[in-house]
Amino acid sequence: MMLPVLKSNEIVQQLQTLQLDYTYDGVVNEFLHRKLLRECEALCNLDGAYAADGYRLKAALYALAGKQKETIDAYQEAEFRAYFSATHLLDKANNLQRAGLHSLAREALYQAYSIHNHDPEILQRSLKVSYALGQYTLGLEAINLLDHLNRSDLINEYRESINNSVKLSEKAKVTDNEIFDRIAFVHKVLFDHTKKSFSGFRQHATENGIAYCIPMHSSISVLIEYDWLIADSIVNYFDDPLDHLITFSTILPHARH
User: Sheet containing 246-251: which strands, arranged edge to edge?
Assistant: First the structure.
């Protein structure tokens, strides 16, 4: 019988393959997905940290399948059984975003950041999640800390976009939370319409504004319909859609290399 820690590592590797395949192809391998859920269940029946690992991995699998309630329930079971490190919390934030649960993802981000302990890897990951959730001020703080730690190599393409985003928001007198509300809303609209999980984002901020793009596996004609749905929904829901600051659209995912 394989040791639980080795089984957990094996599941993580296969889960990462599932996630990568979904990013490129938009399809979940149902056979492998069910197999991994069964293996996670076996871990869940063990004690303490092993059970927590099982529930954390189950949550990630449920998030990939777009099962929101099951994702939340699995994370609650995991947190009942073991302490969540900053790494665990950032994994949680990413998986919650994938499942369209952006408010909970933001909570996990701030919990992780509060215990970063100047760990460069945690700061870099916090920076990426902050960027995805429109928490530009927090992202800028992480950049400054990485600079202070002489780890500017971990910032790369984020510096310019986050600096521009902060400047644009301050000029428009718009808070990060107002931007987050629109990011979360747009993802909810798309999730409610498609019932499919998300596979990342692309965002670019220039001196003229922020373009937030959501990859979706569909035809060009369907993406156009999604864009109309986003535009119509956001205008009808918010008194000010902030379209002078941030625009939303769907795009085709990157092709597999």
Answer: 202-206, 209-215, 246-251
